[in-house]
Design brief:
Layout lengths: L1 E10 L3 H8 L5 H4 L3 E8 L11 E8 L2 E13 L3 E8 L4 E9 L5 E10 L3 H4 L1 H24 L4
Antiparallel strand pairs: 1-7, 2-3, 3-4, 4-5, 5-6, 6-7
C-alpha cells in the first residue's frame, strides 16, 4: 500500500522568494517537520545543488529516527524541485511546486508519494494522515519564516 499526499497553501509573497528559501537544503530543518539535520552529500554534476545532487536528512517521524537520502530529479527554480529517495526505510518521491498567484503571491504545493510496504504498510493509513498534517504545518511554518524578519 502506498501513500500519495498533496498539500497546498497560498503564500502572499513572490514565488522567487518562497522558492529560493524552500529549495535551499540549508533551510530544511528550519521549516520542515521532524528534520533535525540536512547535508549536501553529493553535488550535482555541474557543481552545487541541482539535478543529481543528493541531500542526506535525519528526521523523526512517528517517534522513530529516519535517515534517508534524496536525489534531485528535477530542478527548475522558482517553479519546481523534484526529489526521489535513493536510501532510506522506504521508497519516497517528494515534489515542491511554486506557482504564481494573482497579485504577486505564490501557490506553494508539496506532494509526497511513498511505497509503504512491509512494516510501514500496516501503518499506511496513519502515515498518510500524519504526512498530510505535517506537510500542512510545513507550509504554515514556511510562510511564517518568510514573513518574520530574520536576524
Amino acid at each position: 500500500m502506498g501513500i500519495d499526499v498533496t498539500v497546498e497553501r497560498a503564500i502572499p509573497l513572490r514565488p522567487e522568494r518562497v522558492a529560493a528559501y524552500a529549495m535551499d537544503w540549508r533551510h530544511d530543518a528550519e521549516w520542515t517537520q521532524g528534520i533535525r539535520t540536512a547535508e549536501l552529500t553529493r553535488q550535482a554534476d555541474s557543481g552545487g545543488f541541482g539535478v543529481g545532487a543528493e541531500v542526506t536528512r535525519t528526521a523523526y517521524f512517528l517517534g522513530r529516527r529516519i535517515d534517508y537520502v534524496l536525489r534531485v530529479a528535477a530542478h527548475d527554480p522558482p517553479r519546481l524541485l523534484d526529489m526521489v529517495s535513493v536510501a532510506g526505510p522506504m521508497p519516497m518521491h517528494v515534489t515542491y511546486t511554486f506557482d504564481p498567484e494573482p497579485g504577486g503571491g505564490t501557490l506553494a504545493r508539496i506532494r509526497v508519494r511513498g511505497d509503504a510496504s512491509g512494516l510501514y504498510g500496516l501503518a499506511a493509513p496513519l502515515m498518510g494522515r500524519r504526512v498530510r498534517s505535517s506537510l500542512a504545518k510545513d507550509l504554515r511554518d514556511l510562510e511564517e519564516r518568510l514573513r518574520t524578519p530574520q536576524d
